[in-house]
Write a structure and sequence with these properties.
DNA binding, flat, about 15% strand, nine-stranded mixed beta sheet, four-stranded antiparallel beta sheet, methyltransferase
């Protein structure tokens, strides 16, 4: 194998060729000329990347390798691991960002010259940007990284250095998603906006991948600390390329609570998404630390330790915005600290976000907005509580993020300017601090907000009752007539897999694709697994396209397609209607597009819903059930008979949809009456 050659695993080969790993295994067995392993282990061998690409091209399985995929393969196969690859690639990209003409001079170097001259130049630019104590370690020579660096420089010529690094870093985070707790862009931007417009200096003491500092618009300096030294180095490079060159960037590695790298620093704003429920935060060692100005946090209150650490690092009047678990607002072990934060006017607002906004996605996390009190001023006497689940016209699971962000920012801006805002039932309230200073000191927004009055009051509930009555009448009218008795059928059958091979239907898995460049709403809509199960309209969104502008085409559904979810063990198959046509198909859902000259879609969907059919086509694991769509069986019947069955299945689907509507209206009427009776807007009779 040539020196400095990159290696690739079987999974990497599958990504290059756009096939599954089973196909790569078949190629290895069936083709004697398939490249031999050059490293790895018996269970996970690696292959020379250039030899694999040559073989794929000769076999017609790889007409061309996209440059972004080649770049990632170079990084993924680096002998010292992906973090080491991203450190050197990011350092080169910083050089190119400072002087794009450099890439031309580097391209003329031999590999040895390239590997020898770069480390010193990288160290110079790193020290100039981060200071002498930066966390980005560069080896004395870069022989192993030459192919990676040349590919990165070539990719950056068209895409740009910052975008190239963002692509590599994003791929690394995606590949190790369970290892990191990331703050999504929406909440990060909201937190940065709550901290104020263009603060001079910003700190994140638990910076992770740097999302919060990238979202901020610091005018002078950003400071970050991360306990993982590898992630600290990669985040430093990201911040350096994402911020204006005039903004000073300082990143350090280490535990902020035990080894504060910015002990004397006072900034304008602190943004922090701290580790949650960490009992090993330093309770035993830090009992007499000066940062516990509002009370020594209990061992179970690590979030309150991070909060006081953050307050210790802002100037008087500076802002702290923390992402907090909902339990921190009410745990008895933290009530003394919460009480002192309220008495002294440090805690200004608590915002409950919708569940799913940030990890852990099952919890409705809170944002705490704090201000360091002015020692000479009078502490404010009110607290703003806001519950995004109460945004009018939106349910908590489907609230568009832009609506959440706009509502929170508008309410906070008015409260910050005037000291109070009009109370809105179910949404926000200005609470006198004295009302909160009881035995619990509970600042959970939902516990202090009266429920919203039923929209329209009793008249609206009467309208819901009328719609429910009409729907129930329609349910009775469409209820299936008891069928005639018959013997069990003994039809000849085929399978979905056989129908696909015969060309009677097209079968495609969902889950891929990126958003179109036009940015239209229709281009981003995704029909998710949940949408198929509940019979709803598309609610998902496609991810954005790659930095190089390439778009991965999604599988788009058409009217008359049959969509089948493959997880969960339920017998579900749905015929796509006009309202859902054009949406992309989500993960864990298969599309079946029948040739209507040979196969009726309603007939197909109806027989796929049979309980026995699903049972024989499912595989069972200890925690889940997965459906093998290819094994689902369909009777072999003439098209005329198919259409008779199809019409019957269509009426069953209409009856099912009517039942769903009746259930939803019934729930709405019942809850509206309970709410109206309990808040006095509806009289008992």
């Amino acid at each position: 194998m040539p020196e400095h050659a990159s290696e690739v695993t079987a999974a990497g080969i599958a990504r290059l060729a756009g096939v599954g790993r089973a196909a790569v295994s078949n190629w290895r067995r069936r083709h004697d000329d398939f490249p031999k392993p050059v490293g790895g282990s018996d269970t996970s061998p690696t292959y020379e990347l250039s030899a694999v690409e040559r073989w794929l091209q000769e076999q017609g399985k790889l007409p061309s390798v996209p440059l972004h995929e080649r770049l990632w393969q170079r990084a993924d196969s680096h002998p010292e691991g992906v973090p080491a690859a991203l450190r050197v690639a990011g350092s080169l990209l910083m050089l190119l960002q400072g002087d794009p003409a450099i890439s031309v001079s580097y391209s003329a170097d031999t590999d040895d010259e390239f590997a020898a001259r770069l480390p010193a130049e990288m160290e110079t630019v790193l020290t100039a940007r981060f200071g002498p104590e930066h966390p980005v370690r560069i080896p004395d020579r870069l022989d192993d990284a030459v192919p990676l660096l040349r590919t990165a420089a070539k990719f950056a010529e068209d895409t740009g250095p910052a975008e190239t690094y963002e692509f590599l870093f994003g791929r690394y985070l995606d590949a190790n998603s369970r290892q990191f707790t990331l703050t999504p862009p929406g909440p990060a931007e909201l937190m940065a906006a709550l901290a104020g417009e263009s603060p001079g200096s910003v700190l994140d003491p638990a910076c992770g991948s740097g999302a919060l500092l990238c979202a901020s618009e610091a005018a002078e300096s950003v400071h970050a600390q991360e306990i993982d030294p590898e992630l600290a180095a990669l985040t430093a490079l990201r911040l350096a390329m994402a911020t204006d060159p005039a903004v000073r960037v300082r990143v350090r590695s280490g535990d902020s609570l035990r080894e504060d790298a910015f002990r004397e620093l006072a900034v304008d704003a602190v943004l922090c998404h701290p580790p949650f429920n960490d009992r090993n935060w330093g309770h035993d060692e830090l009992g007499y630390d000066a940062r516990w100005e509002y009370g020594f946090p209990a061992r179970t209150e690590s979030e309150l330790a991070w909060l006081q650490h953050s307050l210790a690092h802002v100037r008087d009047g500076g802002t702290v915005v923390m992402l907090m678990p909902p339990a921190a607002a009410s745990r008895r072990s933290g009530r003394r600290v919460r009480a002192d934060l309220l008495r002294r006017g440090a805690l200004r607002a608590v915002v409950a976000l919708p569940a799913g906004s940030a990890p852990p996605y099952g919890l409705p996390l809170h944002l705490w907005v704090l201000r360091k009190p002015d020692p000479e001023g009078r502490p404010p006497g009110d607290l703003l509580v806001f519950d995004a689940a109460g945004i009018p016209g939106h349910g908590p699971e489907r609230t568009p993020w832009y609506a959440v962000s706009a509502a929170v920012l508008d309410t906070w801006a008015a409260f910050d300017r005037h000291g109070s805002v009009p109370d809105r039932p179910g949404l926000n309230r200005t609470l006198p601090v004295v009302e909160l200073l009881d035995d619990e000191v509970d600042v959970t927004p939902a516990r202090h907000l009266p429920p919203p009055t039923a929209e329209g009051g009793a008249a609206a509930l009467e309208s819901v009752r009328d719609r429910l009555a009409r729907t129930l009448r329609r349910t009775a009218e469409t209820a299936p007539v008891p069928p005639a008795a018959g013997e069990p059928a003994r039809w000849p059958t085929t399978t979905v897999g056989e129908l696909a091979r015969a060309g009677a239907l097209l079968m495609r898995p969902g889950g891929g694709g990126t958003a179109r460049a036009d940015g239209s709403a229709a281009a981003h809509a995704v029909l998710t697994e949940h949408d198929v199960v509940v019979g709803g309209a598309p609610t998902g969104l496609l991810p954005p396209g790659r930095p190089d502008g390439t778009v991965e085409e999604p599988v788009l559904v058409e009217e008359g397609d049959v969509v089948v979810p493959v997880l969960g063990g339920g017998a579900v198959a749905r015929v796509v209607d006009g309202a859902s046509a054009g949406a992309a198909l989500g993960r864990n859902v298969y599309l079946l597009r029948p040739d209507t000259a040979a196969l009726d879609p309603w007939f197909l969907a109806g027989f796929l819903r049979g309980t026995a059919n699903n049972r024989q086509a499912s595989s069972f694991a200890s925690t889940s059930t997965r459906l093998d769509v290819r094994r689902l069986q369909v009777p072999r019947l003439p098209l005329a008979d198919q259409r008779r069955y199809g019409e019957r299945f269509r009426t069953l689907a209409a009856f099912e949809e009517t039942l769903r509507q009746a259930t939803a209206l019934g729930d709405q009427l019942i809850q509206g009456l309970y709410d109206g009776l309990t808040d006095g807007t509806v009289r008992p009779g």
